[in-house]
Design brief:
This protein has two helices and 31 strands.
Length: 451
């Protein structure tokens, strides 16, 4: 099994899936710089590529990008930024904006550099916009220094000012035992303006993560409540990013737990949380993974297609071409009955197809799917396990999909694209890599890929 894959011990740590990916990324050895690029049918737009430099602009962007619809993209870096970080680890992370300059090249603007301490550190998970153009996100550490040495994390808001600067407001500082800790998956809105997110730890008694809700009030304050606590075992453990349907139901995955009779002792679940009477929520497990041909350890949340079907990916399972762990799969849960089927199995045999998909899937307007694999492709990175790829699953008339490789990273153009991609109206893809890019720090890149 490759060094960067998730062992059972790693999965049982009290961290959400994006935080686990961040931890995996930290174990990567220094990247060897490849001088040739394996050809693909798509190409990185060199003028739409940004290589991070650690300080002051950030490093290690572990999550994907969000668009404002005007051609600008926003994201976070796990590290970099300020070189002092309160009671948290050195370098607290940033929120950044990428926009096109007059010459068509990327222009980066750092919207906020976290200070550690009470304002948070190590932002993780995709950002979310409200209707007024404010950004919302989570930090894994910082916040309340009474929680632990580094803090238990925060939910924050960034609001644009007339002079082009942005102001940060901490909406909630987690305190661990009585609510949640390490919220590493970002937040999502429901139609009433409430925020929801997943955390890898917390709760008064021993548990395996929580789902929390933040309710806004007219005075600008927010109230936090834990709406579900995962207990591991059949219940599932360590939830990932959430998605909300029109009825206010929440859907997500857990990286462990479920059917404990499986060889891995519980390889993850897909679940639904539905509001019921009062403040109670009812949870339904839609599928439990077995770490066989069906996959295991769902590495990200799920996404709806236009017909209400759910799609997701697993980091492990599927083909055993990747020793011990499997190479991962893309799966579907059919709307209505939630019948499970595998849409693509990564085999890792020729390397170019990639393995260990992570970061979530994205649809274009024609119903085609896109995603990233953190390994596979050129062997110049990740101890020879590959620099990662971008892939496409083109929808056929019968509802099935045809796989194609779009791009293979080579180190200099980035490595370990763990955050998935965002698709614009023209079909261009935008994303981040956790590593690669600047050879002085391997701090990661923001990229655009054009068909």
């Amino acid at each position: 099994m490759m060094e960067a894959s998730m062992t059972e011990a790693n999965m049982m740590k009290k961290r959400s899936a994006p935080v686990i990916c961040r931890t995996i990324g930290r174990t990567l050895v220094a990247l060897a710089i490849a001088l040739t690029v394996l050809p693909g049918s798509w190409a990185i737009t060199s003028r739409k590529e940004h290589k991070f430099h650690n300080s002051p602009d950030g490093s290690e962007p572990a999550s994907g990008l969000v668009s404002d619809g005007a051609g600008n993209f926003y994201g976070t870096t796990d590290g970099g930024g300020l070189s002092t970080c309160g009671f948290s680890a050195p370098f607290c992370g940033t929120v950044f904006k990428m926009s096109s300059g007059e010459d068509g090249a990327w222009k980066e603007t750092v919207l906020y550099r976290f200070k550690g301490g009470t304002d948070g550190a190590a932002p993780s998970g995709k950002l979310a916009f409200d209707a007024a153009g404010n950004l919302y996100g989570t930090t894994v550490t910082g916040g309340n220094d009474l929680c632990n040495e580094e803090g238990c994390g925060t939910v924050f808001e960034l609001s644009p000012n007339e002079n082009g600067t942005w102001t940060e407001t901490v909406l909630h500082r987690f305190i661990g035992s009585t609510d949640s800790e390490e919220p590493g998956s970002g937040v999502v809105f429901d139609t009433e303006g409430n925020l929801y997110g997943a955390a890898g730890g917390g709760c008064e008694f021993e548990c395996n993560g929580t789902i929390f809700k933040l309710t806004p009030h007219s005075d600008g304050k927010w109230t936090e409540s834990v709406i579900y606590t995962f207990m591991g075992g059949l219940d599932g453990g360590f939830p990932s990013a959430l998605v909300v349907d029109g009825g206010g139901n929440l859907f997500g995955t857990t990286i462990s737990g479920g059917v404990t009779q499986s060889p891995c002792g519980g390889c993850g679940t897909v679940f639904e949380l539905s509001p019921s009477k009062g403040e109670k929520w009812e949870k339904t497990i839609l599928y439990s993974f077995n770490d066989g041909l069906d996959g295991g350890s769902p590495s990200s949340g799920v996404v709806f297609d236009g017909a209400g079907n759910l799609f997701g990916e697993t980091y492990d399972g599927g083909s055993l071409a990747c020793p011990e762990s499997g190479c991962g799969v893309v799966y579907e849960l059919e709307s209505g009955n939630w019948n499970f089927s595998v849409k693509y199995t990564f085999d890792g045999v020729d390397g170019a197809k990639g393995s260990q998909p992570s970061g979530g899937l994205a649809f274009d307007r024609d119903g085609n799917m896109y995603g990233t694999t953190g390994t596979g492709g050129l062997k110049a990175c990740n101890n020879g396990n590959g620099c990662g790829t971008v892939f496409k699953l083109a929808r056929r008339a019968d509802g099935d999909f045809i796989f194609s490789r779009i791009y293979v990273f080579n180190g200099t153009a980035g490595a370990s694209p763990n955050g998935g991609v965002t698709v614009d109206a023209a079909g261009n893809l935008y994303g981040t890599t956790f590593a690669g890019g600047n050879p002085n720090c391997n701090c990661g890149v923001v990229f655009a890929i054009t068909p």
